[in-house]
## 1
Amino acid sequence: MKVSRIAILGLAAGTSAQQAMEIFPGVKIDGYEIDPEIIKVGSEYFAMGDDDLTVYAKDARAGLSQSSHLYDIVSVDAYRPPYIPWHLTTVEFFEEIRAHLSDKGTLVINVARIFNDRRLVDALYQTIGSVFEDVYVVDLPDSLNTMIFATKKSSNFNNLIQNYIVVQDTEEPDQLLLQTLEVAILNQQPNPDAGVVFTDDLAPVEWITNSMVFDLIFSDNMDALQ
C-alpha cells in the first residue's frame, strides 16, 4: 500500500513528521498542534519547514473535522499524562478519524501505561474497538509507552511479518522502517478483554489517570522511575 497522506494530531516540534517523510518519500503530511509556541520552536530549532508538511495551529479534533482530505495514516500523539484531553479519547472522536481515513487507512495512537497498570490502554482499546474493524496493542520496550493500531478494514497482524520480509529483501532497505517493524512484531500484547468505553457524554479519563498516578506514588515502584 502506498502512503500518500498522513495526519499527525499532536505535531509538537515535528520529529514524527520528519521520520514519516524519511520512510515514505513524497508523502504529504498535515500536522495539527494547538500551541503556536511549540510550532515556532519546531520551525526554529528542528527544521520543521518541509514543503510536504502543512502545519495547522488548531485543536486536533476541530482541525481534523475541517479537513477535506482522506488520510492513509492518522497518528494521535497528543497525550501528555496525566493531562490528557478527554475529547481526544471518545467514540465520537475516533468516528471522526475513521471518516477521514482512506479505505485501507490506519489509526496509530501513543498511550501511556504505568508498569502493569494498563487501565488507560484497556479503556482506549475498547473505545477504539467499538469504531474500528481490528485493533492491535504493542508495548514499546524500555518505556512506559504503548502503541495502539487500528485498521478501517479487516486486517491480520501476521501480515506485518510478511511486510517485514518484503522490506528486508529490497536492495536498500530502510533501516528505520525495519527497526519499527521489528519492535511491533516482537512486542505485540494480548488484546484486553475489559475496559471503559469513553464517549462525549462520559469520559472519566482524568479519574483514571489520577488514580494511576496515586497508586504509583503509594506503591513500591517509585524507585524504578529514577
## 2
Amino acid sequence: MFATFDSAESFARFISENRAVLAYFSTEECNVCQTLKPKVAALIHESFPEIKLAFAEINHLPEVAAGFRIFAAPTLIVFFDGREFVRKSRNFGIGELKNEIERPYSLLFS
C-alpha cells in the first residue's frame, strides 16, 4: 500500500509525479506510528482512493525529514499537485484527518 524510497530524490519525484500524496513519516521506535499507519491506510483506501501513499522511515532518510521539517513521529503531510495542504503530527485522530482532507480532495477530483 505504501510506497517506500531509498533516496530523497525518489521521494521528491513521487510527490511531483502524483496529483495527491499522503506522506507518512515514522521511526522504527515509534509504537504509536505502527498502530496508526494501517488506520491511515484504511482511511485513504476507503475515502480518498486517488491519494497515493508514501512512507519514509526518518532514521534511514534523514535528508527527507530535514527537507520537510519533520521533528516528531508520526507526522504526515498531504500534498495536492505537489503543494502541502495538510500536516498532522503526534496527536491527531483519524476523523480529524478525514475532515481536513475532504474539501481539497473534492475540489481536485470532482
